[in-house]
Structures are given as C-alpha cells and as structure tokens.
TrEMBL record:
<dbReference type="InterPro" id="IPR000304">
    <property type="entry name" value="Pyrroline-COOH_reductase"/>
</dbReference>
<keyword id="KW-0028">Amino-acid biosynthesis</keyword>
<keyword id="KW-0641">Proline biosynthesis</keyword>
<dbReference type="InterPro" id="IPR008927">
    <property type="entry name" value="6-PGluconate_DH-like_C_sf"/>
</dbReference>
<comment type="similarity">
    <text>Belongs to the pyrroline-5-carboxylate reductase family.</text>
</comment>
<dbReference type="InterPro" id="IPR053790">
    <property type="entry name" value="P5CR-like_CS"/>
</dbReference>
<dbReference type="InterPro" id="IPR036291">
    <property type="entry name" value="NAD(P)-bd_dom_sf"/>
</dbReference>
<feature type="domain" description="Pyrroline-5-carboxylate reductase dimerisation">
    <location>
        <begin position="157"/>
        <end position="260"/>
    </location>
</feature>
<dbReference type="Pfam" id="PF14748">
    <property type="entry name" value="P5CR_dimer"/>
</dbReference>
<dbReference type="InterPro" id="IPR029036">
    <property type="entry name" value="P5CR_dimer"/>
</dbReference>
<dbReference type="InterPro" id="IPR028939">
    <property type="entry name" value="P5C_Rdtase_cat_N"/>
</dbReference>
<keyword id="KW-0560">Oxidoreductase</keyword>
<protein>
    <recommendedName>
        <fullName>Pyrroline-5-carboxylate reductase</fullName>
        <ecNumber>1.5.1.2</ecNumber>
    </recommendedName>
</protein>
<comment type="function">
    <text>Catalyzes the reduction of 1-pyrroline-5-carboxylate (PCA) to L-proline.</text>
</comment>
<feature type="domain" description="Pyrroline-5-carboxylate reductase catalytic N-terminal">
    <location>
        <begin position="3"/>
        <end position="94"/>
    </location>
</feature>
<dbReference type="Pfam" id="PF03807">
    <property type="entry name" value="F420_oxidored"/>
</dbReference>
<keyword id="KW-0521">NADP</keyword>
Amino acid sequence: MTTVAVLGGGRIGEALLGGLVAAGYDAGSLLVVERDTARADDLTQRLGVTVTDTADAAARADVLVVAVKPQDVQGALGAVDGGRDRLVVSLAAGIPTSALEGWLPPGTPVVRVMPNTPMLVGRAMCVLSPGAHADDAALDAAENLLRSVGRTVRVPEAQQDVATALSGSGPAYLFLVAEAMIEAGVALGLPRPTATELVAATVDGAGGLLTAPGNHPSLLREAVTSPGGTTAQALRVLEAHGLRAAFADAVEACRDRSQALGATFGG
Ligand SMILES: NC(=O)C1=CN([C@@H]2O[C@H](COP(=O)(O)OP(=O)(O)OC[C@H]3O[C@@H](n4cnc5c(N)ncnc54)[C@H](O)[C@@H]3O)[C@@H](O)[C@H]2O)C=CC1
Ligand SMILES: O=C(O)[C@@H]1CCC=N1
C-alpha cells in the first residue's frame, strides 16, 4: 500500500488522516509529523497513525502531504532530501507550485490542492493543480488519494485563488449563515437545541439537493418560493440587505488574500 506522510497534524492534517482511516486506509501506512507532541500523541491514540520526524517521513513516504500553515511550509520542507522519488501534495493556501518546487529537491513532482474541512466527514471538495514536474500519473495519484475523502476537481493553477475563496473558505461562510439562522430562531422563541437541529438538517438537506445531478440553485430556490407565500418575503428582505453584494465582496476579499499570500512566496 502507498505510504502517506502528513507534515502538520492540525485541523486539515487530522481531517485528511481521519478521512483516510475512515475510508479503510491502513493506519500502518500513515505517518504524521507534528511538532506539538501532545497533539501528536492524541493523533496516534485516536487514529492509530505513526508519529515521526520529517527526515524519516520523507525517506519512507510515497506521498508527502504538506499541511502546515503557509508561513511554516518552507521550514517544514527543509529536512526533505533527494534520496527518494516521492510525490508532494501541498494543501497550503496561496503557496504556488513554483515556490514549493524551489524548496524541494530538483524535479520533485508537486500537486497543489485546496481542500476543505468537510474532509473530516468524507465530503471534502479538493481542487487540484499540477506543478511543472507533475505528469498525469502524479495528478492521478493525488486525485485517487483525495477521492477517499470526498470530491476532486482539476483546475489551472491560476484559478486556485478563486477556488480557495469558494470551496476552501466556503464552509466558514455557510457556518456563519447557519449561526445567524439559529440565533434568529432563538430570538423568536425556539429552544436552542431545536433551532440548531432544524438549521443543521436544512443545510444538509439543501446540500443533498444541490449536489444531485441535474439540479440548479435557481430552480431549487424557485421550487421553495410559492407565489404570495412565506419564502418570497424572506428573500425580499435578504436581497434588500445586500446578500449577493456581500458575498461578491467577501469572495473577492478572500481571493485577494490568497493572491497576497502567494505573492509573498513569489507567485
Ligand atoms: N483549516 C482549513 O479549513 C483549511 C486549511 N488549509 C491549509 O491547510 C494548512 C494547515 O491549516 P490548519 O490545519 O488549519 O492549521 P493548524 O494550525 O490547525 O495545523 C498546522 C499544524 O502544523 C503543525 N506544524 C507547524 N509547523 C510544523 C513543522 N515544521 N513540523 C511539524 N508540524 C508542524 C502545528 O503544530 C499544527 O498542529 C494551511 O496551509 C492552510 O492554508 C487549506 C484549506 C482549508
Ligand atoms: O483561512 C485560511 O487561510 C484557510 C485556507 C482556506 C480555509 N482556511
């Protein structure tokens, strides 16, 4: 079985490891490098993965996954030498493949990926772009690994910053919307557990409809909106408060931040 080493066992590193274990991946083939020793021990206990250091991970891994914060990536890759062929899959926001290639042994195949946290429940959206040395086989290998924890899409690297602003950060927007709906229900007198259950089930069910083949958000919204009914009144208020404009500005600000991060690293 392919040996996968994850550099950084934080939120997204754990989501990948946990997702792979849940998908039936052999924990014996999963390594993690995590500088917070308490967290590393916790990952071993809960997931059965092996904790090691970067040099050992690089020596053993067929796929080396980078899951540290963007500013920690160059340091984390310092101990990766050229002694072994391996694929590097970077989950770090903003960092271009050209920068990663410059920090790695010459010729290392790199695939840049923007994942998201629904990976924890096997429902990630992972957006992949190949670097200069990643051929179709490398891209296939990265995609096969990530398909164990959700969906994948390939895009040219120039589209990664916008992808980050939609699917990478997107779960946070939807959680904020959910929070706002729950608080609105509580303000109108619903018990908090009831409001939370109603909203969570509604987001989940709406997501199921949205991802069903042939569906479109406009048609789905129309199907809920009865003429002269309740939904039309709510939508009128949301439009009057500038919901669309708020999302357009938010997604642009997120895209800009991803670009700025990339520019720091020569992108
Ligand atoms: N959290 C999210 O929703 C998403 C995060 N990402 C990307 O994933 C990466 C990780 O993000 P999070 O998991 O949220 O961060 P995090 O801070 O939860 O995890 C990073 C982990 O790496 C460890 N670490 C840092 N330097 C290390 C080193 N040299 N060796 C070993 N361990 C080291 C830290 O102790 C920490 O546990 C970032 O680059 C981020 O841009 C991408 C998409 C979504
Ligand atoms: O907020 C961030 O920078 C990371 C990247 C995408 C989601 N979380």
